[in-house]
Amino acid sequence: MGANKAFIEVDGIPIIGRIYSLFKKIFNEIIIVANQKEQFVGFGAQIHSDLLPDRGVLGGLYTGLFFSSFEYSFCVACDMPYLKESVVRFLIDRIDGYDAIVPKTKEGLEPLHAIYSKNCLEPIRRLMNDRNYKIIDFYPMVKTKTIEESELISLDPTMESFINVNTPEELISIKKKRDSF
Fold first, then answer.
1. Would you say 28 and 21 are in contact if contact means Cβ atoms under 8 Å apart?
2. What CA–CA distance (Å, rounded) separates 16 from 22?
3. What does the DSSP assignment read for 93-153?
4. How far apart are CA 47 and CA 41, in angstroms?
5. Residue 1: pLDDT band by 50, 70, 90 thresholds?
6. CATH number of the domain where residue 21 is located
7. pTM for this prediction
8. For residue 127, what are the domain limits?
9. Each residue of 123-153: pLDDT tens digit?
10. What's the number of domains the chain is made of?
């Protein structure tokens, strides 16, 4: 993108600002895992650098779970501008003793729009020790519940909660698509 995706503006608001505003309504604690911590000091959140550097998003997930004061954490990528409160709350309501609650869309599993328990810490660490940084590869090691798209469609008919922005062209395409709704 040529810039930190968290600060790309969508409808005049940086993506991280959109996420933070939503999370303030839902959660008692917000943790941002970022290597450039100084960029996020304006938010009333805990900010941590990766405990285990160079482990990709799995290292970020591990860090967030490690520092969380709660047994469960909703974990999301910083480039998802259209999160829906109703979808997040639906996932929270499905915890029921599972260690990971992961939506599955037509695109596949959505590991960076999911809920994880602290029970995931050790399996994640083992995966990283094996130099495997693919989030979904620890799912068989924990009690995982998959939430199918069909369960979410009434809450988010366009499934835009799961859109992430990776390129400037993608952002333009997403905006055009949203304008046509």
1. no
2. 10
3. TT-TT-SEEEEEETTEE-TTEEEEEGGGHHHHHHHHHTT---GGGGGGGS-EEEEEHHHHT
4. 8
5. very low
6. 3.90.550.10
7. 0.92
8. 5-179
9. 999 999 999 999 999 999 999 999 999 999 9
10. 1
